[in-house]
Amino acid sequence: MYQAQFDYRRAGSVDEALSLLQENEDAKLMAGGHSLIPMMKLRLAQPPVVIDIGRLDELKGISEAGGSVRVGSLPTHAVIAASDGLAAHCPVLAEAAGHIGDAQVRNRGTIGGNIAHADPGSDIPPVLVLLGASVHLQSPSGTRSVAAGDFFQDLLMTDVGEDEILTHVDAPALGSGTGAAYLKFEHPASGYAVVGAAASVTVQNGRCTAAGLVVGGVSATPTAVDVSSLVGTDLSDDAIAAAASGLDAEDPIGDIFASGDYRVHVGKVYGKRALAAARDRA
Amino acid sequence: MTVSIQLEVNGKPVQAAVEPRRLLVHFLREDLGLTGANIGCETSLCGACTVLLDGNAVKSCTMLAAQADGASVTTIEGLARNGELHPLQEGFWEKHGLQCGYCTPGMILSANYLLAQNPSPNDEEIREGLKGNICRCTGYHNIVEAVKYAAERMS
C-alpha cells in the first residue's frame, strides 16, 4: 500500500529539527526510515509531516572516552557493526548490530531509529539494558538522559517525548576480564529476533565477580534475568543453566510464529548459550 | 507539495520534483523507466528492489525518493559497460544463476556490494551476504556459483 500523503521537511541541524517538531503537531522524525516507512505503508502511522534528520552529521559520531562509548543516534547498523572503536571497547554492541536484518537493512537502519521504534524483536534494546547504557534526549528546554532499563516502556513505547530528539547513547566500555555476547533465535522471514539474549560476565582469578543477562522478544520490553547466583562460582555449565532458567515473564508475548511459553523456553536456552559464550570471551 | 531532488542515476544526472511519499523504487521504475529494480514484497524482506546508493546495497522500496537527493544510484541497467556484461551478469549467465529472473537484479546488486566489501568470499559469506535477497525458484546453489565465478573474474 502507498503511504498516506505527508509533507517532507529536511532538517539542517538538531535545533532546526526541534523547531520543526514544535511547529508541526504529530510530525515524525525519520532517519533511515526502516521502521517508520513500513509503518506508514501499513498506515499504522500517518504523520502529516515527516522531518528527515538523516543528514545531521552532529548525530553520526562514534567515540570512546573515559571508560565509556558514545554512539550518536544516526550511525547505521552497518557502521556500528564495522566500528573499530566499538570492536575494541564494546564489541557486544557491534555484534548485535551485525545480527540485524540483512546487509541492505543494516545499510539504512540507524541505532536511534531502532530503539525509538522499540520493536520487542529488536536486537539492540536488550544489549543496551544489559550494559546499563543511558539514552540521551534533547528538547527545546534542554537535555536529559534516561537509563536504558527505563527507556523501553511498553510495546513500541519509549520515554521519548513529543518535543524530543534522541541524540546519542552512552554505554560503559567493557573492562578487562569481562566478556559479553548476544545470540538470537531469528525469525527466518523477517530477520527480527524471536528471542535474543545478551549476557555478560566478569571473571577474576577464575571466579565470577559479576554477571548479567537480558532477554529480548519474550516480553514487550527487554527482560532482565537475576543471574547473581553466578557470582563466586567458576561459571560451570550447570551453574549457567540454572541461572538462565530463572528467566520469568509475567505476560510473555505470543504470536502465530511463537507462543509466549515457547518464547520463555527458547529464552532460557539462548540465555544459557549467551552466558556460556560470554564466559568463554571473558 | 513536491520535493525537488537532484541525483545521479547510473552515472547520469537526474533532476525531478517528486511527491514526498514517492518511493525510490517507484521513482526509478515509473519516472525514469528503469524497471530492473523489481517490486516484490514491498516490506523490505525480499530484496528484489535492491539498488546501490552511494555504493551501498539498499532496498529501494523502503526509501523515499526524497531521501536519495544528492546521492548516486546504480541499478542493474548501469552495470554493463560498452555492451560488455558485468562479470556478475556473466556469472549468472554462465552458472545458470537464474530461472525466472525476478530476483536477479537485486541478487546481482547485493552481490556487487558484497564483493566490494569482500572480494573473495567463501560460500558461507556469499550466502550471508545475500541473506536479504529471496529467490523462489530455489536457485541459491547456482547463485552462489555465479558470485564465485564473478569474484574470480574480478580479482
What's the total helix number of chain A? 11
Question: β content of chain B, as a range?
Answer: 15-25%
Query: How many strands of chain B?
Result: 5
Overall geometry of chain A comes to: globular
Distance between the termini of chain A: 48 Å
Radius of gyration of chain A: 19 Å
- In total, how many domains does the architecture of chain A comprise? 3
Number of domain units of chain B: 2
CATH superfamily heading of the largest domain in chain B: Beta-grasp domain
Q: Shape of chain B, please?
A: globular
- Strand order of the biggest β-sheet of chain B: 2-1-5-3-4
Task: Estimate the strand proportion of chain A.
Answer: 25-35%
Structure, explained:
The complex is a heterodimer of chains A (282) and B (155). By secondary structure, chain A is an alpha+beta fold. Chain A folds into 3 domains: 7-52, Uridine Diphospho-n-acetylenolpyruvylglucosamine Reductase, domain 2, CATH 3.30.43; 57-172, 2-Layer Sandwich (Uridine Diphospho-n-acetylenolpyruvylglucosamine Reductase, domain 3), CATH 3.30.465; 178-281, CO dehydrogenase flavoprotein, C-terminal domain (Enolase-like, domain 1, 2-Layer Sandwich). Chain A has 11 helices and 14 strands. In chain A, strands 4-5-10-6-7 form a 5-stranded antiparallel beta sheet. Chain A has a 4-stranded antiparallel beta sheet with strand order 11-12-13-14, with helices on both faces. By secondary structure, chain B is α+β, with helices and mostly antiparallel strands. Chain B has 2 domains: 3-78, Beta-grasp domain (Ubiquitin-like (UB roll)), CATH 3.10.20.30; 87-154, [2Fe-2S]-binding domain (DNA polymerase, domain 1), CATH 1.10.150.120. Chain B contains 5 helices and 5 strands; from the N terminus they run ββαβββαααα. Chain B has helices spanning 24-31, 87-94, 104-117, 123-129, 140-154; strands at residues 3-9, 12-18, 50-53, 56-59, 72-74. In chain B, helix 2 (87-94) packs across helix 5.
